[in-house]
Amino acid sequence: GPIFWKGWRAHVKRLNPDAVIIAEIWDDPGAQPYLRGEHFDTQMHYPFATGVTEWLAVRPGMTAADLALVLDDAFDDAPQTNLVHQNLFSSHDTDRYVSKLLNPGREYDAGNRIQDGDDYNDVLPPDEIYQLSLVGMAIQATYLGAPMIYYGAEYGMWGADDPTDRKPLPWADTGSNLNPTDNAVDGIREHYVRWFNLRKHPKLGPILRYGDLRHLDAGDPGVFAFERSLNGDRV
Fold first, then answer.
1. Residue 215 phi, psi (nearest 5)
2. What are the phi and psi torsion angles at 5 (to 5°)?
3. Which residues, 6+ apart, have CB-to-CB distance to 234 below 8 Å?
4. 116-175, pLDDT tens digit by residue?
5. Which of 151, 168, 161, 164 is nearest to 94 (CA)?
């Protein structure tokens, strides 16, 4: 419980004061004490994943204003905690990011286990789903927090929950997979590289890594807009 993690944190920080302690907490900890500087530094930020994937495709009719409210709720911790929230879309415990977008109308990580007989569309998504996924990736690359890419998302890997979310990575130098639909999807990695390299840009990088965040009204329910700012500079 909390007493153990408090002692464990003290031990870890003695060994390496710069170590980041990330908890596997799926929901907003809320009134629990875990993200207040005594136990963990941050969490695997499933609240971010839920909000953005629902807005992109999973919850038809969700507006940009709805997404802003969801993310305001998800980032209501201390500033130093918000900056390191591990923003992800999928993990070894969920269906793949692009497959979520192909299967609307279900709660996050629900109804996605083929072996349990779930009615889940477990096929290579069409190009329009990949294009939609890049919109979410752009948010992930520029939003408050610390992005975490589950291996293979940058190659377009798809699949339902365990075990198909853990397929081998389609390495470029190993030839075609036995199932050709599991090969890397052309062009996806280049988009990831371009967007995430912004966080290392000499001018933009510090703002995207450390800046404040403000949601903007784009005047269109389908357009999600926000501003990052640091020391008077804005993105």
1. -75, 145
2. -65, -30
3. 207, 227, 228
4. 999 999 999 999 999 999 999 999 999 999 999 999 999 999 999 999 999 999 998 888
5. 161
Residue 67: per-residue pLDDT: 98
Instruction: Please state, in angstroms and rounded to a whole number, the distance separating the CA atoms of residues 7 and 5.
Output: 5
Q: Are 145 and 87 a contacting pair, CB within 8 Å?
A: yes
With CA atoms as reference, report the closest residue to 79 among 138, 18, 35.
35
Model confidence at 16, pLDDT cuts 50, 70, 90, reads very high
R_g of the chain computed on alpha carbons: 19
Cα 93 from Cα 150, distance rounded (Å): 11
Positive or negative, the CA dihedral 223, 165, 103, 66 is negative
Whole-model pTM: value is 0.95
Strand order in the sheet with 42-45: 22-23, 42-45, 86-87, 146-147
Mean pLDDT on 191-213 = 98
Query: Does residue 29 contact residue 35 with C-beta atoms inside 8 Å?
Result: yes
- Which residues are CB-contacts of 194 (< 8 A; sequence separation ≥ 6)? none
Number of other CB atoms surrounding residue 216 within 10 Å: 12
Mean per-residue pLDDT over the chain, rounded: 95
Contact partners, residue 198, CB within 8 Å, separation at least 6: 141, 142, 204, 205, 208
Chain CA centroid to CA 209, Å = 15
pLDDT computed for residue 31 by the predictor: 62
| Residue 188, number of CB atoms within 10 A of its CB | 21
